[in-house]
Each structure stands twice: as C-alpha cells, then as structure tokens.
Amino acid sequence: MKMSGAEILVECLKKEGVRHVFGYPGGVVLNIFDVLYDEKDLDLILTRHEQAAVHAADGYARVSGKVGVAIVTSGPGATNTVTGLATASMDSIPIVVFTGQVPTMLIGNDAFQEADIVGITRPCTKHNYLVKDVKDLAQTVREAFHIASTGRPGPVLIDLPKDVTSGMCDFVWPKEVNIRSYNPKYEGNKWQMKQAAEEITKAKRPVIMAGGGVILSGASKELKELAELTKMPVTVTLMGLGGFPGTNNLSMGMLGMHGTYCANMAVQNADLIVGIGVRFDDRVTGRTADFAPKAKIVHIDIDPTSIRKTTRVDVPVVGDIKQVLKEIIKNLKETKEQWGAVRKSWLKQVDIWKMERPLDYEHDNKIIKPQFVVEKIYELTKGDAVICTEVGQNQMWAAQFYKYDKPRTWLSSGGLGTMGYGFPAAIGAQFAMPKATVFDIAGDGSIQMNIQELATAVINKLPIKVAILNNRYLGMVRQWQELFFNERYSHTNLDVVPDFVKVAEAYGAVGLRATTPDEVEPVIKEALKIKDRPVFMDFVVDWHEKVYPMVPAGAAIDEMIFGEKKEKKQKFDSSQIKIA
Amino acid sequence: MKHTISVLVENKFGVLSRVSGLFSGRGFNIESLSVGETIDPDISSMTIITRGDDLIIEQITKQLNKLIDVIKVTDLMEVEHVEREMVLIKIAPAKGDRPDALRITDIFRGRIVDSGPKTFTIEITGDEKKISAFVEMMKPYNIKEFVSTGKVAIAREGLKK
Question: What is the distance between the alpha carbons of residues A182 and A175, in angstroms, rounded to a whole number?
C-alpha cells in the first residue's frame, strides 16, 4: 500500500518506539502535523519555541535513556534548533531532530523560510541527512536512530523537503541497519584491560574519575562494584553526577573548577587516575600541564578521539564502559588483594581532606543564601527528585549542595553551558517520568531565556518546580568580574527583573516567593503539594554570594580560591602535604 | 611534520564539506586536498596533506574516522608510498629563450600541451621535489599562470616502513 512521506515518517517513529515528540509547526511540515492530528499512539507536545522543543527532547532522553525526538519547520524553525543540537552534541545525548525544508526543486533558490540546515548543523550533530527522495525516508530514519543511540550517542538531524513528506511510496521498514563506515567498538582490548587492572593493583593512591559516559553506558552498578571492591575513592565530573552515589563513603564529590577541595587535592596527589567515561575537559583539568602530576592515567572511553585529546594517557581502553568495567573487575577479583589494608592510609588522607574543607557557606538568619535553598530542596525531597539546572551559579550550587545517588536524576548542560536549558529539559523529563518530582534550579537570568515554556508546562499540567535563585545579577559572570576584573560589573546587573510570581500567575501557574530564610522551607513544601501545574518559587537571595571553591581559569586544580571567611586566594602547595 | 593522509569516503554530497569543516572547525591545517571517484563509484578517495605533531596527527586520523561517511583512513607516513601531483604552467618566455625553455621541459619529461604565439603551456607530473625544481627552473621564463592538482598518493605493495 502506498503511503505519503508524512505517514511513513510517523510509522517509522512508532516502530522506533517513540511515544512523545516535541515540536512546533510551520508551512513545510504541515503534511506531518496533519498526520499527527489523528494519531493516537504518538503525542506531539507543542512547545513555545523550537529551541525548547530540542531541549525537551534532550531532557526526555537523559531521563529515560531513549532517543528524544523533535519536529520543527524550515528556516527559522530549523535554525532555532542549533543551540539544542549543540547542547546535546557536547553532552553526547541521543536525539533525532526533524526539520522541514522547502521543496527539493526550490532548494538553493533562497526560497521563503529556506535555510541550509544540513550545512549549518554539520559541526553540532553526530550526523545529519537531507532526504531527497521519499523512497529513502524509512531507511534514513532507521539509520538516524541507530547512529544517535549507539557508540558515543549524539544528536542526528534529518531535513525533510516538503515534496518528500507529500510524496507517495510503499512503506518498507528496513529489518536491520548496516552502515559499512560506522561500527562502534564496544569490547575493550583484552591486553589493555589487563594493564588497567594491573595499574589499579599497583597503585597506592588511586582515584576514580567518572563522567557522563558511566550514565550513558548504564554502568553505575559496575562503577560502584569497582570502587567498593578496590576501595578507590571516586570523584565525578559535572556530567557524572549520579553515576556514583553522592552519599557513598568513597564519594569525594565533583572535581574541577568548582569541585570539592577533597576531590581536587586527591587528584593532584594521586598516583593513578582511572578516568571512566570522561573527556578531561578544561573545566575539570585546569592547567593540563599540572593536572594530576604524580599520576599515571588509565582512560576508558567509547570514543577514541577523547583519548589523548587534552591529557597524556598511559593505559587507554576504547570500549563500552559497562563491558570494560566488568572485564576489569573480573581481572581484579583474581588478584585476591587485601584492598582494605592496602588503601587504608590513602583513604584516611582523603577523609582528612574531606573534613579539612567541606563545601560550606555562612548561613544567615536575615537573608537567604542560595546554597541554603538547594540544601533544603535536597532535604525536603529526600534526594529523590530529578534536578534540572540552568547555567551559572545556580548550576554549580545545585551540583555542590544536593547529593545525587542515582543516575539520570541530574540534567544539566555541562559541555555547551546553555542558559535556558533547564526549564524545557524539565518538561521533557516530566513527560518521560510523569510521577517523578522534577525541579529546575534556575537563576533569574537563565530562566528568562526560555520562560515562555510556562505555557507548555501549564497546558500539559506538568507539576515542575522551578526554584529561581534570584540575585538580580548574571551571578557567575559577576563573580568573575568581582574576582578578576576589579569589580567592574559591566552589564551583569539585570536591573529590571520581572515579578516572577506574577509571571507565573499570568500563565496560569503558581507563583510563590521567599524573602527570608524561614520562608524557604514553607515555600518548597507548598510547591511539593502542587500536582497539576508548574510552580515558580522566587527565592530572593544574597547577591554577594559566590561559588567556592574556585579554580581560576588557567590555574592548576589545587590552586583554589575559597570564600572570604576563609583565607583569601590562598594557594596550596600540594607537595607540602605528606601522605602516609 | 608533514603527513599525507589517504581517506576513503562514501561518494555522497556534503562529504567534502564534512571533512574540510572538521579541519577548519578544529583548527587543523590542510596544505592540499584532492578528491576523486574510485573504481567503485560509491566511494571517493581523498588525499590530504597536513602538518602537525604526533598528537595532532593522531587526533586528525581519529576525528576523520569518527565521521560517519568515512570508510577508511590511512596515514601514508606509516607506510612506503608513492606521491604524485600534476601541474600546468603557462610561460611567456622572451623570444630568444623559447628553445631553452623547451629543452628544460624535455629534461624534466614535461609535455607541451598548448602553444600560442607568445606562450607555452607545459604539463608536468612528479613528486614535490621534481615539481618545485622545475618551477624554479621556469621562473626566468616569465610564468603567467600556474595550476596544480594537489597531491595524490598510494601505498606501495608489500612494503612496511
């Protein structure tokens, strides 16, 4: 039976197991939206901006592990997806984005709402396609889902000219995908895995550094087993939060620019770093020449390009984290080492660092400290929520003062650092997990970058809790200006910040406000009671507050700055610290 | 160090810009790039001349491999190989110089492919050294135009460096 391209597309999505699609209509995708109008098994969620549709698909993917999907129109609809695609690309999130395109015969004519989106998105997608013939459509969709979800995951874009979605042909669902030039390697090299196990056995002061790859690979269980078996302390990157339980004794928290004192000191004094699903980016390593100077580096990642991209590597293992860890654990179990005894003094040193300078802030009885809000959210949700964040100080405090015990409960734009990511991502997350308590920890700057999504959340009755840490500033940039630009606050004072309570109410959501510390708990409790609509919580916080510790750009990660209460800009000489 | 990298790619539209975009986006340098169809019309072959230390070349080959449309990447520096490029040079020698120019062309086994009242166009094929030596020799004869195919390269059979 002949079907239209639009019908074939929808059939393909259903065959891929897609249940929710985020999107925004327009001229050249009318064919697709017309088919969706009668569709019972596939819901299209109308966002209020195409960028938000892509972030929502991304949030959906991060929470569920499935491929997130968005459909938008050509031209501006398509170009609005670029930030979402780049966000997903940097964080290796599997999404497939469909963009409409002008009819094939008009391509290249500067037609109305034409944009060369395949050209534009080439560097920010894992792969992209322009379908020129309806006969290629099903095969292309199949390949796109395969590429997005396998190997190192990432976004794939398919550009669909109008005549392709209106064209007719027989629907044939390809049984399998076989791309000769794309064969991700999942099994690690046996010899290298053995080497890795040997290094772990030899090491006196090892540190596991785990990243987003652990979560993408579904390897949290194996990571925990490895750490507990060999008694190695664990630090996670921003993307790795939740990959290893934050409440576990071996957890040292996040490392890097705003990492914990303990994690950064441990890395700098370690004799072995086991990097698992990380890409050693600059926010983590600081000055690369002085990163982990005393350590050998074992690096496990599925993407060969990650290896030796920024740091030296002594033992590389390319493969799927879950499979590789299983094999390494097997090797280690055969050694019958008495790990508890071997690691005793090292773990003691780690504990000393933990106690020496834990993450903290000075509580105040009159003015709300932003960190206090995050702590309260953790306490009142008992750590059982999905936390999305925007980007900046809000993101760092959310990373520092909430303990993530489970994978896929932390959604943040780590690589690209996209302000405006959190709220639409929370929408996607809530669709993927309707029963979950979903928070967006936001700043007053970031939330305004996709605030229109209140409409999407209201109409879909999504009980998303948006905690706005409102300091009337673009806080993180202001922090840099304060510390490194002689307090010249160029264009970081937002001056006019809307009344977020009224904004929420105008959209039909609930608006709550806390201006003193004792109002924080009642506001969060009130928000947690609301089950049928989004809530904006406007926390009027101390604008002086900064994110500490901080490693200035270009410094080594043990050259941390601490808050005023502590020594100002103290440089630590790690060689002074004696390790038993 | 200079490297010659041979890349087999799917012969699809947009592949060249994927490859060249990779180089520009990541700040790798391309000295020359030539593309042509192989015997199999579905596959094209690219010869890329690039420069970089070992780490950069490692990244270049890995990043090329990561592109979905790239089938095979070979760094020809690791194997014995043959490199050739062809250039066309149009010269306008002074009247008395014409026989000399022709003689030098002969010595380099070049061919005259076009001749005008005042000009010759010479075709010459060879490796980099031969081409640059020839160009040096032609300089006194008033080079009007110069075009090059860029290098193509192929591994020698059965020889490993």
Answer: 17
Q: What is the pLDDT of residue A502?
A: 98
ipTM of this complex: 0.91
What is d(CA A405, CA A459) in angstroms, rounded to the nearest whole number?
Answer: 32
Judging contacts by C-beta atoms under 8 Å, the chain A residues touching residue B25 are 123
The Cα–Cα gap between A71 and A22 comes to 6
Average pLDDT, whole number, for chain A?
96
Residue A337 confidence (pLDDT)? 87
A414 in Cβ contact with A90 (< 8 Å): yes
Q: Does B27 reach chain A within 8 Å, measured CB to CB?
A: no
B55 and chain A: CB distance < 8 Å anywhere?
yes
Given an 8 Å threshold on Cβ–Cβ distance, is A119 in contact with B71? no
Range of the domain at B113: 82-154
CATH 3.40.50.970 fits A2-170, yes or no: yes
Active site residue A476: yes
Q: What pLDDT shows up at residue A565?
A: 61
Residue B75 and residue B89 in one domain: no
At A292, which amino acid appears? A
Q: How big is the A-B interface in CB pairs under 8 Å?
A: 35
- Residues of chain A with Cβ-Cβ distance to B66 below 8 Å are 303-305
Does residue B49 sit in the same domain as residue B89?
no
CATH of A370-540, one of 3.40.50.970, 3.30.43.10, 3.30.1320.10, 3.40.50.80: 3.40.50.970
Residue B159 lies in a domain: no
pLDDT at B22: 96
Burial classification of residue B72, based on how many CB atoms lie within 10 Å of its CB (0-12 exposed, 13-18 middle, 19 or more buried):
middle
- Measured between alpha carbons, how far apart are the two ends of chain A, in Å? 76
**Shortest alpha-carbon distance between residue A184 and chain B (Å):** 9
Contacts of A308 in chain B (CB under 8 A): 55, 58-59
According to the 3-state scheme, what is the secondary structure of A270-330? CCEEEEECCCCCHHHHECHHHCCCCCEEEEEECCHHHCCCCCCCCEEEECCHHHHHHHHHH
Asked whether A561 and A549 are in contact (CB, 8 A), the reply is yes
Q: Taking CB atoms and an 8 Å limit, are B10 and A308 in contact across chains?
A: no
A439 is catalytic: no
Query: What CATH number is given to the structural domain containing B9?
Result: 3.30.70.260
Average pLDDT estimate for A521-529? 98
With beta carbons under 8 A apart, name residues in chain A contacting B21: 122-123
Number of domains in chain B: 2
Chain B closest CA to A153's CA: distance in Å? Answer: 12
Percentage, residues of chain A above pLDDT 70: 97
Residues 6+ apart with CB under 8 A from A74: A26, A27, A28, A29, A99, A100, A101, A102, A113, A114, A115, A117
In this structure, are B57 and B111 located in the same domain? no
Cβ distance A130 to B58 less than 8 Å, yes or no, reads no
Q: Which residue does chain B place closest to A179, by CA atoms?
A: B68
